[in-house]
Design a protein that fits this description.
The chain is of the alpha+beta class and 504 residues long. The chain folds into 3 domains: 11-24 and 308-401, Pdz3 Domain; 27-306, Thrombin, subunit H (Beta Barrel), CATH 2.40.10; 422-502, Roll (Pdz3 Domain), CATH 2.30.42.10. The chain is built from 12 helices and 30 strands. It starts with 10 loop residues before the first helix and ends with a strand. 44% of the residues are buried.
Length: 504
């Protein structure tokens, strides 16, 4: 049985895509790093965006002073590397491309890395290495030549060349890269280089003007501008990066370039776009500068990056789940599974808990949790406020490093279908051992409300409204006590997810 839940086309699909393992899963096609850059001289008064002619009742800023002051700190990066290509016939290659197009849109078309292949493209069995060339952008963060860019820009690089705005070309060394956050640090041998200054994610506001400087399609020092569309955006690629979403025009070649706020401070690294064509379509994503600085500091200090891990899988809380767990509003990160022997289990977290705060910071969306963990370090102690069975509790957890080993997770008659539309029977001992659960009920048939929500024959019902179930009577009793809806914890293969079901 496959390890992914193959829910039918329903509202559960997006809930499943939003669920993510905390602490390290390549949180998803994106990435971090370094030591603080020297602060450049204070921005001259003229650098404040001057108001220009009103546009639709709102004055559009003038970014010319910021571009003049900090544009020289933005560089063009040329990469020479190798890639493995297939010797198969064109027909086979066409088949591979066709297979990529048949992937679900949320996977095959969502994030196209600039200059990279489409997800799902295959390489033939008789592959060989072929020289490749690519371009991207970066920005100087220290006067002695330390530069930030994207990890995917320098991936597989044999030779990296940095071109400055004064037309000098310098060979660069890759100090380190972190594919998990898509941040890389490179260095050129030079002195007295122009540098950027950093802002803070916390100070950035949705609707605020921002601009990007980079080399789209190789056109160096191109300036584009727009507004912040959203903050803390979680992408369906298992990433823990809390992306900044903008409507700034970003295209191939902009990767690794800076995103500036209206005060001339770098607030992000332009990294990804949403596109069905491979080009800009109005939705762009940048890695927050806070994440990038953390990764830079680690790479400069040690040459490697360590990520923290909590050891839970979480999902969104929608209105139906909020009703099921008696929450006053649909907020928080719902814990669907807890890694046995991990930090979360040691702290006392349980499936069905709704994490509402970490260290006093609100968790509104499930993506807020991995974003906070991504900014923490292994060994950090965190305070977790959870909602459990109608009341609040506070737990303490100590994060561990991604990669640290932990222990692996360990007859009634069929029930009538009732209000849920489920026919259930208790698991046999060998079945419990096989799925690693101490209790649960096998779904023998699913109809009505349960089937519409995505529950299928062969699924295992582990809990109702956060309470583990061992018998059909327990399920009947839990459903009888519920008013509007119930939340079922379902296991399919190795995956677990809460399924909200409205009653009546």
């Amino acid at each position: 049985m496959k390890n992914t839940l193959q829910w039918p086309a329903s509202r559960l699909v997006m809930a499943l895509l939003a669920a993510g393992a905390l602490g390290g899963a390549g949180v998803s096609a994106v990435h971090l790093g370094l030591a603080h850059a020297q602060t450049p001289p204070a921005l001259v008064a003229a650098a404040s965006p001057a108001a220009s002619a009103p546009v639709g009742g709102v004055q559009a800023p003038d970014f010319s002073a910021i571009t003049e002051r900090y544009g020289p700190a933005v560089v063009n990066i040329s990469v020479v590397g190798t890639t493995r290509v297939s010797n198969e016939s064109n027909d086979d290659d066409d088949d591979a491309d066709a297979g990529a197009q048949e992937m679900p849109p949320a996977i095959a078309e969502f994030f196209r890395r600039f200059g990279g292949p489409m997800p799902g493209q295959r390489q033939g069995p008789r592959a060989q290495e072929t020289p490749t060339r690519g371009q991207g952008s970066g920005f100087i963060v220290s006067a002695d030549g330390v530069i930030l860019t994207n990890a995917h820009v320098v991936k597989g690089a044999k030779e990296v060349t940095v071109k400055l705005t004064d037309r000098r070309e310098l060979r660069a060394k890759v100090l380190g890269s972190d594919p998990r956050t898509d941040v890389a640090v490179i260095k050129v041998e030079a002195k007295n280089l122009p540098v950027v200054k950093f802002g803070r994610m916390a100070d950035l506001k949705v609707g605020e003007w921002v601009l990007a400087i980079g080399s789209p399609f190789g056109f160096e020092n191109t300036v584009t501008a727009g507004v912040v569309s959203a903050k803390g955006r979680t992408l369906p690629d298992d990433s823990a990066v809390p992306f900044i979403q903008t409507d700034v025009a970003i295209n191939p070649g902009n990767s690794g370039g800076p995103l500036f706020n209206g005060r001339g401070e770098v607030v992000g690294i332009n990294s990804q776009i949403y596109s069905r064509t491979g080009g800009y379509q109005g939705v762009s994503f940048a890695i927050p500068v806070d994440v990038a600085i953390r990764i830079r500091d680690q790479i400069v200090a040690t040459g490697k990056v360590e990520h923290a891990r909590l050891g839970v899988v979480v999902q969104e809380v929608n209105q139906t789940l909020a009703d099921s767990f008696k929450l006053d509003r649909p907020e928080g990160a719902l814990v669907s599974s807890v890694e046995k022997g991990g930090p979360a289990e040691r702290a006392g977290l349980q499936p069905g808990d709704v994490i509402r705060q970490v260290n006093g910071q609100r968790i509104v969306s499930s993506g807020d949790l991995p974003a906070l963990i991504a900014l923490a370090s292994p060994g950090d102690k965190i305070s977790i406020d959870v909602w459990r069975k109608g009341s609040s509790e506070t737990l303490q957890a100590q994060l561990v490093k991604v990669g640290d080993k932990s222990a692996k997770a360990e007859g009634d008659k069929p029930a009538d279908q009732g209000k849920l539309g489920l026919a259930l029977r208790p698991l046999q001992p060998q079945e419990r051992e096989q799925i690693g659960a101490e209790s649960g009920l096998l779904v023998q048939d699913a109809r009505g409300a349960a089937a519409r929500a995505g529950v299928q024959q062969g699924d295992v019902l582990l809990a109702v409204n956060g309470t583990n179930v061992r018998s059909v009577d327990q399920v009947r009793e839990a459903v009888a006590k519920s008013d509007k809806s119930v939340a079922l914890l379902i296991q399919r293969g190795d995956q677990r997810i809460f399924v909200p079901i409205r009653l009546g």
